[in-house]
Structure formats: C-alpha cells, structure tokens
TrEMBL record:
Site (Discriminates between blocked and unblocked aminoacyl-tRNA): 14
GO MF terms, alphabetically ordered: peptidyl-tRNA hydrolase activity; tRNA binding
UniProt protein name: Peptidyl-tRNA hydrolase
PROSITE patterns reported for this sequence: PEPT_TRNA_HYDROL_1 (PS01195), PEPT_TRNA_HYDROL_2 (PS01196)
Assembly, per entry: Monomer.
EC number: 3.1.1.29
Species of the source: Actinoplanes auranticolor
Amino acid sequence: MTEDAPWLVVGLGNPGREYAGNRHNVGFMVADLLASRVGGKFGRQKRAVAEVAEGRLGFGGPKLILAKPLTFMNLSGAPVVALAQFFKVPVDNIVAVHDELDVPYGQVRVKRGGGEGGHNGLRSMSKSLGSKEYARVRFGIGRPPGRQDPADYVLSDFAGAERKELEFLVDRAADVVEAVVLEGVEWAQNKYHGS
C-alpha cells in the first residue's frame, strides 16, 4: 500500500437495469453502498467509460475513488487503467470487488494477486494493468446447482433465500474493502476469514 496515494475500488458488473440484480453485479452493489458511506455520488467520468464517486474513509482518512465500469464485464480493464492513470493510483492501491464461484454463498474472502479463476472482469483488469498484484474482495456466490452453465448462473438474479441475506453480505463486503484500505490485506484476512 502506497502512503498518501488514493485508493481505486472497482466494483465489477455489467451496465444496464436488466443486469442490476444479477450475481455477477454484486461488485456494483458493494460500490453503491461504499459511496453512500463516504457521501459520494456516482457520475460519469469523462476520462474513462465508468461511473465514479469520490470520498474519504473517515475524517482525514484515505481518499477513495469508487468506480463502476460501464463497459461489459469482459472489457473492464480499459476503464480501470484510465482511472488509475488519471488519479495516479498505484496497482498496490487498487481493489477489485467481484462475484466468486469458488467461494460458497455467504462468505467474503480477500486476497492480493493470484489467478483469475475464469472471471472475465479480473482477466481484463490483469491484462490491461499488466499486473495481477491488486487486491480482490471475493463475494462468494457458490457453484451453480445441477448442470446449470456457470455463465447462465452468474447472469441470473440471486434466489429468494439468498436475497434474505444479501443486504447483510453486501454490508460485510463493504466492511472488508474498508479493512483492506485502512489496515491491509493480511489484517482483513485475519479478521474476516474465520467468520
């Protein structure tokens, strides 16, 4: 983490009302909650195909740039690079918030670097940034039931039973993002991975 540099928190998702409730759009949901926490309002950013909100974490805390790329998921990297360059954010200070098939529903995990696990948004970010060393807040959506195609599963809305917990889990994911920014990935892992 680079002292005094701003943080770029990227909620991954697809633009458009028809995708708003999809499992794949949980990154947007977390970004929206974080914006409300820091008093930021999303607006179009001229330098990137993205909606951006800005604010500070706590009084005098680090500056947060919250982004929701308006490209589709598999093209998320270009807006992320444009924003990182414009706001002078080092890769160490970038956090991607995304849905994760390999984590059970109800769990939020955090890591820095590593593979993309077939996630097209992460693949696009890694390729465009030329690095995998950004932090990831992984919102568990679990594996699709039966023989359902994972691509169809991520583009479907959360089920009724899942929706009962969704608000709480989005809140927890936002807490994890704040912990990564304020205390670092390892601290966030120690605090949140046991629960």
